[in-house]
Amino acid sequence: MNNRHTSHVDTFVRDNLPPPEQLPEFLFTTRELQFPAQLNCAVELLDKKIAQGHGDSNAILTPNEVWTYRDLYEKSNRIAHVLADDLGLAPGNRVLIRSPNNPMLVACWFGVIKAGGIAVATMPLLRRLELEPVINQAEIQFALCDERLMDELSAAIGATAFVQRTLQFNGSGEQGAGAELERLMAGKETAFNAVATASDDPALVAFTSGTTGIPKGTVHFHREVMAMCVCAGTYTVQPAPDDIFIGSPPVAFTFGLGMLVGLPLYFGASVVLLEAAPPLELGKAIGRFGATICSTAPTAYRMLLNHLDEFDLGSLRKTTSAGEKLPLPTYREWLAATGIRMIDIFGATEMIHIFISATGADIRPGAVGKAVKGYQACILGDDDEPAPPGTLGRLGLKGPTGCKYLADERQKNYVVNGWNLTGDVCTMDEDGYVWYQGRTDDMIISSGYNISGAEVEAALLPHAAVSECGVVGIPDEKRGMLIKAYIVLAAGFQASAELVTELQDFAKQTIAPYKYPRAIEFIPEMPKTQTGKIQRHKLRALSQ
User: Fold this and answer.
1) For residue 169, what is the enclosing H or E element?
2) pLDDT for the residue numbered 210
3) Is the dihedral of CA 350, 239, 124, 117 positive or negative?
4) Could you tell me the pLDDT band of residue 529, with boundaries at 50, 70 and 90?
5) pLDDT for residue 343
6) What is the strand order of the sheet 480-489 is part of?
7) Is residue 23 exposed (0-12), middle (13-18) or buried (19+ Cβ within 10 Å)?
């Protein structure tokens, strides 16, 4: 991955990319995916829109304010100045960004990229113990944080040794330094010469959790951000400048980054950002803003279907579903209620965005879709070679994006013979349609979130009442899967509804609220193998 065009003075991320033999094969099969050697994705997505005369067009809408493209351009430039001039950011430094979905979050992301930094956006719900490994693994030097989310970040920074400076934004002023970033921005120029990064300079590190619960940092280049916009936008969703995007995924998810930042700006459209977007609030906002393209999980669409009389969804033209398998009944009910054929999209943080989908007449209900233009898909057999149609096996992908874990031995498990292995078990028919069957690991996918059962177990086991614990996902109509904990009680404790609530609250103290076990069952003994390993398949069978 050595590139003579690199602008990065700090080469930590580049130096910790996987060795060449562990990298996937990259494909650049179309004209739009032929990127120049030097490329800054912030310039491509934002600065060029200003040059093309979009400055006065709306870019970001919220319940409280409207930002034009020029507003976003000028504020991101001022942030870039703060980073480069006041903090001394060097190209290649990592900057953690922590905020709900709002305009300043987007401005910070662009400011970091323009200054040549590497953006590390984190979920706003993460707690201290979840932030610490992000800071340590990426060796974060600077942090930009919404004032309201500082408590957990401050605790994490105090337990680590890398962060040199933290600036708060969206401040009320009540905590003194709450608006420090805005105060520093006020005296900066509204123009900034973006660093001339290489197309394969790292632009972001997106963290995901594997089955062990240990987060993995996935590195993505500037060209991969643009490939995301081409493949998800030009080849799949196909938005227009008058479209208004809306959705629920956090921008810290690469799915959210694509659907709520990359695609809207790439096509000169606008986006509605909601700091919280539970289904019913999302439904209200669709009508209020006249949103035309909605992106959320099947769980949310099922909820909207149950409350259709409460919302005006008439402005919607397209809806995309991601995060979990789209149930066929949900697809059919949505089509009958709205006349819209749901676009099911299949992606992974390791690949930055989507790689399997279908739109319009190409949708085959029940199938996820076919390889998005620019990608190749196959089903790998036990010999790690592509298998014939109808074979049940592991889904493999190649395309313009690919997995590059940051200094992580698990890279060898994700990339095999140049194919990215997503951890999904699928079949593929003779027409190339992919039919999802399940996960190869014990990852729990609930309401669009990937949740490690081992991580939930680790949050419950310290409780004095817990002797042993096994966490699995069980089928659930609303969430796709429900997190269920099976617990063997320690001596002296009795099962009760009160203890269930106590254990749930205990877990919420160390892990994000969406990860807590919504169901807890007390059992006399844990099923195990002869070597002492918990047999989670037997736990899942208990709920069938």
Assistant:
1) strand 165-169
2) 44
3) positive
4) low
5) 96
6) 466-476, 480-489, 519-522
7) middle
- Identity of the residue numbered 398: K
Phi/psi at 295 (nearest 5 deg)? -130, 120
Q: Residue 522: which of 465, 457, 481 has the closest Cα?
A: 465
- Residue 110: strand, helix, or coil: helix
* Inter-residue contact 97 to 122 (CB < 8 Å): yes
Lowest mean pLDDT among 23-27, 45-49, 240-244, 299-303: 299-303
What DSSP designation does 18 have?
A: P
Which of these, 431, 398, 101, lies nearest to 256 by C-alpha position?
A: 101
Q: Roughly what angle, to the nearest 10 degrees, separates helices 328-338 and 298-305?
A: 50
HSE (side-chain half, CA atoms, 13 Å) at 523: 18
What's the CA gap between 441 and 452, in Å, rounded? 10
Asked which of 70-74, 401-405, 438-442 is least confident by mean pLDDT, the reply is 438-442
Enclosing H/E stretch for 287: helix 279-289
At 260-310, the pLDDT tens digits run 999 999 999 999 999 999 999 999 999 999 999 999 988 789 889 989 999
Alpha carbon 423 to chain centroid, angstroms: 16
Nearest of 81, 137, 141, 139 to residue 108 by alpha carbon: 81
What is the β-pairing status of strands 244-247 and 293-296?
parallel
Strand partners, 487: 469, 522
Query: 266 with 240: CB under 8 angstroms?
Result: no
Q: Minimal CA–CA distance to 203: which of 403, 8, 2, 407?
A: 8
Distance of alpha carbon 497 from alpha carbon 485, whole angstroms = 14
Q: Going along 213-368, which residue ranges are E strands?
A: 215-221, 244-247, 270-272, 293-296, 318-321, 343-347, 354-357
